[in-house]
Amino acid sequence: MAIYTVTYDLLNPGKNYDRITGRVAQYDSHKAQYSQWLVNTAGSASELRADLSNYIDANDKLAVFVITPKMWASANMPLMAEWLAARGH
User: Fold this and answer.
1) Between the chain's N and C termini, which has fewer beta carbons within 10 Å?
2) pLDDT exceeds cutoff 80 at 14
3) Contact 36/7 with Cβ under 8 angstroms?
């Protein structure tokens, strides 16, 4: 299993956040910020990107980055820190 940070910008008028957030929430995930989630999955970054790309429009932006254990830092985000710590990160 790996933990990825997923970020996105929805650019079309009338942005439909429910599609992408609903899909991300189906994973073992934590919403870190408005358009940033942490996702714990056995898949690769490209597999996660391919899956989530089905839930955004063609001109929207989506990025997936791996989170390396003990190689991250945050401020004022205790729930995120707890979520990561519970998964060995």
Assistant:
1) N
2) no
3) yes
pLDDT value of position 12: 80
Domain of residue 65, residue span:
2-86
Yes or no: say if 39 and 4 are a contact pair by the CB < 8 Å rule: yes
Return the amino acid letter for 38. L
Q: Is 24 within 8 Å of 39 (Cβ atoms)?
A: yes
| C-beta separation of 60 from 6 below 8 A | no
Q: Name the domain count of the chain.
A: 1
Which residues 6+ apart lie within 8 Å of 26 measured at CB? none
Distance CA 39, CA 26 (A): 10
